[in-house]
Amino acid sequence: MVTRMPFADVNGQHLYFEDSGGDGPPVIFSHGFLMDHEMFAPQVAGLCDTFRCITWDERGFGQTPATAPFDYYDSAADCLAILEHLGIERAVLAGMSQGGFLSLRAVLTAADRVKALVLIDTQAGVEDAATLPLYQAMHDEWIANGPANVQDAVAGLILGGGYDPSPWIAKWNAAPREGLTLPFRTLVERDDITGRLGEILCPAIIFHGDADQSIPMADAEVLRDNLKGCEKLVVVKGAAHASNMSHADQVNGPLREFLLAHA
């Protein structure tokens, strides 16, 4: 049960977060592009009896505005600043897609603050050049006319079939359309940190949907093979990009085991 739902005014930002509270080991969950803190509701519900679960809205999503250009190192600093705001010195960082991008960068910039990494449908590289024109066209349509003409395709990529996307589509339609541009630029202009994965020594676990069309399984295998502390790549059967949401039954068990060992 969430006990605190405040904002942290850090790094010149007004960051919304939720904190389940308690004395358990802390885990901070960072969401994917076009999502917000609520995408981790299945993990908070399944883990908050044992762990202190912190979720937050990254710049440009949910209740956190993006007011100027930023990169994922800035987002990593935001994540760590929330922990500092809460008086937490070290925590497990769990990130899905762009949440993984920022979590990896948080370890690279402040390894002493990170107990372990949970990486969900993410990667260390950049977007495939072949997909960039499609993503740009989707962005341009979203800005010009709102999400109506692309929302079904986007929801399919993120959630896959068999998962009701209507709550997320409603959020997308309610948000100011122009707010997409700054986080989109951050997404498509990020740097490639594959060559730095060997610097990351903390324990790690990877979850990846075998039906993920946004980030291929091969990118998860690169993480597995280059993160020296990686203990397991959990292939989530039938899951698309947001495997922790659509297939929480396959994610929460191995996640709990990993956290019990390392949080």
Short description:
By secondary structure, the protein is α/β, with parallel strands linked by helices.
What can you tell me about this protein's structure?
The protein is α/β, with parallel strands linked by helices. The chain has a single domain, classed as Rossmann fold (3-Layer(aba) Sandwich). The protein is 39% helix and 18% strand. It has ten helices and eight strands. The protein has an eight-stranded mixed sheet with strand order 1-2-4-3-5-6-7-8, sandwiched between helices. Helix 2 crosses helix 3. The longest helix has 15 residues. It is globular. It starts with 6 loop residues before the first strand and ends with a helix. The model has no long low-confidence stretch (mean pLDDT 96).
Mean pLDDT across residues: 96
Global structural class: alpha/beta
Report the helical percentage: 25-40%
State the CATH topology: Rossmann fold
Task: Label the CATH architecture.
Answer: 3-Layer(aba) Sandwich
Oligomer: single chain
Topology of this structure?
Elements (H helix, E strand, L loop, with lengths): L6 E4 L2 E7 L6 E5 L10 H7 L4 E5 L15 H14 L5 E6 L1 H12 L4 E7 L11 H14 L5 H9 L6 H9 L6 H8 L15 E6 L7 H10 L3 E7 L6 H4 L1 H15 L1
Parallel strand pairs: 3-4, 3-5, 5-6, 6-7, 7-8
Antiparallel strand pairs: 1-2, 2-4
Helix pairs in contact: 2-3
